[in-house]
Each structure stands twice: as structure tokens, then as C-alpha cells.
Design goal:
single chain, 313 residues, two-stranded parallel ribbon, binds NADPH dihydro-nicotinamide-adenine-dinucleotide phosphate, binds 3-Dehydrosphinganine, EC 1.1.1.102, transmembrane, 3-dehydrosphinganine reductase activity, NAD(P)-bd_dom_sf, KDSR-like
């Protein structure tokens, strides 16, 4: 916790990874299996879970390691609690040592074209899908008086900043930061450490999916962000947890936004975070005005697009 304590080692521990069947969650589950942890993954689609287990089984380092998958949708308090209990059953009902809430989905679009249900789904698939797991896990760990538990949430660069197209998603990812900062403080009462990861673009199945509804202008703005593979992103997440960082970033752009929006969130490095903050002080206004110009010059094209789609009639 103070930076000089021994780094976290998951060997022999039980790690629960939500969204562990594809993308970031699967890449993280692979790292954890390779490190000798017992790993449980939860997602909805059984076929994808089966395929993930096949891949994870190949990486086991110990015959006694448990590598298990369960199908649940984690968008309600009830299902998230039931999922957690199912995951703990092979461990005599004992709470996991670490919970990684990676599950999530996004559906970028223009705000005025979104239906009410899209905005509600945004909070469900961005915020609640992780918040309920954190809630169920915190309760279980506190009740069992478990020491040294970890809860890790997954936000996004869009949990620190935002731009057009992300109205149903960015608020949910900002909300996760509020939850993580609250729990980072409150769960100290129970010796539980809380971490939150802010990945940039990751080239995952989820990214392929969101690009189906993503407006072209949003894609163009995101071109400035090269993105990470799921493996690179998972490694950064793992390293951040290993070294006890409250806010974890694994790329320069997000580190700049982290340092410049930190508020009272714990710093990672007193010197480097100050340097990032100073760079961001100059760089963010430049980026901001270039994006504003791009959006304003898109007005006519956007008007024609809406007209063609019958928006005004
Ligand atoms: N890819 C990107 O560019 C970025 C992604 N993120 C965030 O990172 C996390 C991982 O993203 P990524 O790896 O790209 O996503 P993927 O779509 O590749 O994987 C998402 C995982 O979550 C599961 N999942 C989704 N919804 C639910 C649900 N309701 N209940 C249970 N499981 C669910 C999926 O399985 P199934 O569908 O079968 O349930 C899958 O295992 C997400 O929280 C995402 O918002 C953050 C920044 C950038
Ligand atoms: C400081 C000045 C530098 C400015 C450069 C900024 C470049 C834009 C960064 C866009 C990042 C968007 C990530 C979206 C990730 C995400 O959450 C979605 N893919 C949903 O899954």
C-alpha cells in the first residue's frame, strides 16, 4: 500500500474475473493462470466461456489449480450475488482473494439519435455490471472478515474525459471512478484494497462490436489513440495491481488525463505525475480546440446526415 511493501503475488490465491471470456478479461485471466492462481471467469455466452476455458487450461502451471467458468448476466444485484456465490462454492464458500470486474459493453452513437433505452443500457452495461459485483464482493469479504482482499474495477480513458458519441458510456465510466474512489477509502475499514483501471482503445471483440455503431467522426477523433492489444492492456492492469496503484493507466495519453484530473485520488509517482500534469496543462487545451474545430466543421455534413435519416420530419 505504501509502495515499498512486497508486491502482490496471486500464486495459490483465488481470482474472480468477470468478463473473462474475451478481450481484456480473458487476457488477464491468462496472466493469472500463468502466475499460478485459481481463476474463475463469468460472462453470459456459454460457448465463449467454453472456448476461453480451453485456452486457459493450456496455461495451468499446477495440477491443483482450479480454472472454472460460469454463465451469468451481471447486470442486477441478485444475479451478481448468485454468480459470486457460485464462484465461491468450490472454495468452501470463501470469498475470492481478488475480484476483477472487467465485464462491460458500449454502444457509441449521436445523443439525439439514442433512444431512452440506450441511455439506460449505457449505465447498466458500463456501471451496474461492475458495481453490483463490487457490492456483493465487498459484503462477502467484510462478513467473512477476510484480510487483504482486492477489488478491481475497469473504467476507460473515457472515465476521465469525453467527446461526442459517448453519451451513454462515458457517464457510466466516470461513475465507476466515483465508486472506486469512495470504496478505496471506505473498504480500508475491512483491509480491502480497491483499484481502478483506465484503458485506452483496446483491440478486442468488444471494440469490433462498438465500431458497428460508432459515427465516422468519432473514429477520426480516436485515431490519435493507437490503442493496445488485450494482452498489453491486461499486463498494464496486472502491473498496476501488483504495485498497489489506486488509479491504473497503461498508456501515455491516459496517464496525462489521470494526472490532470486526479483531484484527491492517490498519486502513483510524485515526480512523474507532476510531469504528466504539466504536459497535460499545455496539451489538453490544444487537443480540445482541435476537436472542437472538427466538430463545428462537421455541422453541415451532420445536418444532411440527420435529414437523410428523416430526423427532422
Ligand atoms: N475495447 C476498448 O476499446 C475498451 C474497453 N473498455 C472496457 O474494458 C472492459 C473489457 O472490454 P473488452 O475486453 O473490449 O470487451 P469484450 O466485449 O471483448 O469482453 C467483454 C466481456 O464481458 C462480458 N460481459 C459483457 N456484458 C456482460 C454481462 N451483462 N454480464 C456478464 N458478462 C458480461 C462478455 O461476455 P458475454 O458477452 O458473453 O457476456 C465478455 O466476456 C469493458 O468494461 C469495457 O467497457 C475500456 C476502454 C476501452
Ligand atoms: C493530452 C492530450 C492528448 C490528447 C489525445 C487524445 C486522443 C483521444 C483519446 C481517445 C481515447 C478513447 C478511448 C476509448 C476507449 C473506450 O472506452 C471505448 N473504446 C469503449 O470500449
Amino acid at each position: 500500500m505504501f509502495g515499498f511493501s512486497k508486491s502482490w503475488n496471486p500464486r495459490g490465491l483465488h481470482a474472480y474475473v468477470t468478463g473473462g471470456s474475451t478481450g481484456l478479461g480473458l487476457a488477464l485471466a491468462k496472466i493469472l493462470v500463468l502466475k499460478g492462481a485459481h481463476v474463475s471467469i463469468v460472462a453470459r455466452n456459454q460457448e465463449k466461456l467454453d472456448k476461453a476455458i480451453e485456452e486457459l487450461e493450456l496455461l495451468r502451471v499446477d495440477a491443483a489449480q482450479k480454472v472454472l467458468a460460469y454463465s451469468f448476466s451481471l447486470t442486477s444485484a441478485e444475479t451478481s450475488t448468485t454468480a459470486l456465490e457460485a464462484v465461491c462454492a468450490p472454495f468452501d464458500g470463501k470469498a475470492p482473494d481478488a475480484v476483477f470486474a472487467c465485464a462491460g459493453a458500449s454502444r457509441p452513437a449521436f445523443f439525439v439519435e439514442m433512444e431512452a433505452q440506450h441511455l439506460e443500457q449505457g449505465m447498466r452495461d458500463g456501471y451496474w455490471v461492475q458495481a453490483w459485483t463490487a457490492w456483493a464482493a465487498a459484503k462477502m469479504m467484510a462478513k467473512q472478515q477476510k484480510k487483504g482482499g482486492k477489488i478491481v474495477l475497469v473504467s476507460s480513458t473515457l472515465g476521465y474525459m469525453s467527446f461526442l458519441g459517448w453519451a451513454s458510456y462515458s457517464p457510466a465510466k466516470h461513475a465507476l471512478r466515483g465508486l472506486a474512489d469512495t470504496l478505496q477509502s471506505e473498504l480500508m475499514l475491512y483491509g480491502i484494497s480497491v483499484h481502478i483501471y483506465f484503458p485506452p482503445t483496446m483491440h478486442t471483440p468488444g471494440y469490433e462490436e462498438e465500431n458497428k455503431t460508432k459515427p465516422q467522426i468519432v473514429k477520426e477523433i480516436e485515431d490519435a489513440d493507437e490503442g493496445l492489444t488485450a494482452e498489453q492492456a491486461a499486463k498494464a492492469l496486472y502491473r498496476g495491481v501488483e504495485s498497489g496503484q489506486a488509479h491504473i493507466t497503461g498508456d501515455l495519453i491516459t496517464s496525462l488525463f489521470r494526472a490532470s484530473t486526479r483531484g484527491a485520488s492517490p498519486k502513483n509517482n510524485w515526480i512523474l505525475d507532476g510531469v504528466y500534469d504539466a504536459i497535460a496543462y499545455v496539451a489538453t487545451p490544444i487537443w480540445r480546440s482541435s476537436v472542437d474545430k472538427k466538430v463545428v466543421s462537421h455541422r453541415m455534413e451532420h445536418h444532411d446526415y440527420l435529414a437523410k435519416k428523416g430526423f427532422f420530419t
